[in-house]
């Protein structure tokens, strides 16, 4: 019996991840009409609910959400919610000018992954690697995020050579503006 309780405790204690979610509200302090997102949206300009956006006064973020004024997660990047472990209400009209939005990396925050972007501050293409190696992106990555308590050694060249740096996501997702073409899980 004691082993069962201890095992259950360990299971619950290690399940700290959550699915990222964003809710937009028409009123301040996360009140009034609402719309919830659990997916990355690359083009809100043709979105069937686009009439909803001009009246947004606040949002509740759970995870790490990024807002872009252009479609396709392109420049200019407007704002991010910051990483939120608990759902947090933020009074902001930024979503009114948003044409694309996404969360950082995998939907589940405790998934060990490296996320590579071909633009600074999470712009444009996003590639998520959950394997032990990442290379042949097809572009020079300018920004990286480590998720799920994972560590990565990022290399300047595609063959895991050249200047390198360690990116550690041990206390939640960690982002860094750094140019790299390959990565290996773990840091020396």
Describe this structure in words.
The longest helix has 13 residues, at 2-14. It is built from one helix and 15 strands. The chain is elongated, with a radius of gyration of 18 Å. The protein has one helix spanning 2-14, and strands at residues 21-27, 31-37, 58-63, 65-68, 77-80, 84-91, 100-103, 113-117, 126-129, 133-135, 141-147, 151-155, 164-168, 174-180, 182-185. It has two domains: 17-103, Crystallins (Gamma-B Crystallin, domain 1, Sandwich); 113-185, Gamma-B Crystallin, domain 1, CATH 2.60.20. With 188 residues, the protein is mainly beta. Strands 2-1-3-6 form a four-stranded antiparallel β-sheet, with no helix packed on it. A four-stranded antiparallel β-sheet has the order 9-8-11-14, with no helix packed on it. The protein has a four-stranded antiparallel β-sheet with strand order 10-15-12-13, with no helix packed on it.
Q: Summarize the main sheet.
A: 4 strands, antiparallel
Helix/strand-derived category reads mainly beta
Number of helical stretches of at least 4 residues: 1
CATH class (first level) name of the largest domain: Mainly Beta
